[in-house]
Design a protein that fits this description.
This protein is an alpha/beta fold and 159 residues long. The protein has 7 helices and 6 strands. The N and C termini lie far apart (43 Å).
Length: 159
């Protein structure tokens, strides 16, 4: 099986979703299995950072795949302009694709998993940057509608 994971947040975010994604991939890499895993990263990185990333994932079945555009441009192309450029252009054919950061990019893969960590931007809009909130208000519902499975990584209790 060939598994694709959007690893961009793991590379560009130190805490929160970045930490979650790094932990998820590390746990998967430690399992004994023969599945291949492509970790998709938007943005250009220095060779030293690439070597550092590779050294942390000690599984020969895991490969970093890079999109040669910044995360910002990829987000604009995929989620604002809705350009249907599938992740498989960078990863090759996939059996499963997991997007751990609220939005699901275009994919040809029929089995998809989307992690939505919370909906605080809806419940407490004053705590979100207006542009980020506006983006999430548009992109998350579209992604949820296309996702095969949704993982809600938080719990919300009424006040």
């Amino acid at each position: 099986m060939h598994i694709g994971i959007d690893y961009t947040s793991a590379v560009h975010q130190g805490a929160g979703i970045g930490r979650y994604t790094r932990g998820l991939v590390q746990a998967l890499a430690e399992l004994e299995h023969e599945d291949r895993c492509s970790l998709l990263v938007a943005g250009r990185l220095q060779q030293s950072k690439i070597r550092n990333l590779k050294s942390k994932i000690e599984n020969p079945n895991f490969r970093l795949k890079f999109i040669p555009l910044s995360h910002r441009y990829v987000t604009i192309l995929w989620h604002r302009l809705c350009l249907p450029l599938p992740v498989e252009l960078f990863t090759g054919p996939l059996d499963v694709f997991h997007s751990p950061d609220f939005t699901l990019p275009p994919t040809l893969c029929r089995r998809t998993l989307l992690t939505v960590h919370d909906l605080s931007y809806l419940r407490h809009p004053e705590g979100a940057f207006p542009a980020q909130r506006a983006f999430l208000m548009r992109a998350v519902p579209r992604s949820v509608a296309r996702a095969g499975h949704i993982l809600a990584a938080s719990e919300n209790r009424p006040d």
